[in-house]
Please model this.
Amino acid sequence: MSTSNTPTETEMLAANAAGVTRAASILTEGGLIAMPTETVYGLAADARNDHAVARIFEAKGRPRFNPLIVHVADAATAQRYVAWSDLADRLAQAFWPGALTLVLPLRPGSRLSPLVTADLPTLAVRVPAHPLAHELLTQFDGPLAAPSANPSGKISPTTAAHVAAGLAGRIEGILDGGACPVGVESTIVGLFEEPVLLRPGGLPQEALEHCLGAPLKVHQSGDPLIAPGQMTSHYAPGASVRLNASDVGPEELLLGFGTVDCALNLSAAGDLTEAAANLFHHLHALDAKVPKGIAVSPIPEIGLGRAINDRLRRAAAPR
Ligand code: TXA
Ligand code: MG
Model:
């Protein structure tokens, strides 16, 4: 298995039993595999293997203080790694497998690499719903640490081609599951003294509040950094990004929403689920045309619109 910074040949693995078996064996040997999930592609490594986890940070150029989400096959497995609670159980029953990450106290003796949690006393866990991710977790039969499979700070990947464009030569394999159906990362909820929404994502806040029967406290940007990855500039295309655009400048391309004349439309029908699925794909596609700027139509701040606007605000933030 390769060590730091040596070029690695990246195998394209098909979405079949042979592809999953090969991916599982590469992971067992301490290699890195990009795996499809329903949200975005993740860059997976054995969460118990220090060397493998260190290589995730190297391949992405990710700062070591930014902890990783551990992916497991089911809620029973999650309970080996975190201190479980009634509230965790309620949310897991309602939304796992799916686009929800729970942050809970790390269980002593979990034997995960300390790099995974960046030495925090808590751990982020998720049970992905994508059938290939589930199959891979079942065959590998262990916890997989997996951030989004993009170079740190760049646009997240929703196809195998996006992963290859950012990480080919730095990882052992890409399991090609086609386009990710949700298209934005998981919603992250911290279960501390009270539940806190740490990152809006593919599971709408409204669905969580309905399940909890109460409004969810939302982490504000001025609060202490409890989700260390929530740095303001993120998801950055090469072009500058201008939000809430009602017009388009001569050197700009318009990323539209609803009935508007534009270069690419997130959803001509104004459907937020469709817009989330298209978001990163369209940002990659517009960025490839190397425009001076990308202007973006207003997106309503409800349901998946919250996650879309969060990613767009970070893409537009000063770098
Ligand atoms: O949908 C997703 O969540 C995707 C797929 C691959 O599962 N993963 C993903 O990972 O988006 P990443 O690393 O790009 O984003 C994870 C976020 C980061 O902002 C990180 O700081 C935060 O989760 N995080 C991880 N562990 C944490 C912890 N113990 N406490 C608070 N935040 C944590
Ligand atoms: Mg990410």
Q: What stands out?
A: Residues 37, 39-40, 42, 66-69, 101, 103, 117, 120, 122-124, 126, 146-148, 185-186, 188, 198, 226-230 surround threonylcarbamoyladenylate (ligand 1) (CB under 6 Å). The chain has a mean pLDDT of 94. The first strand starts at residue 11 and ends at 13.
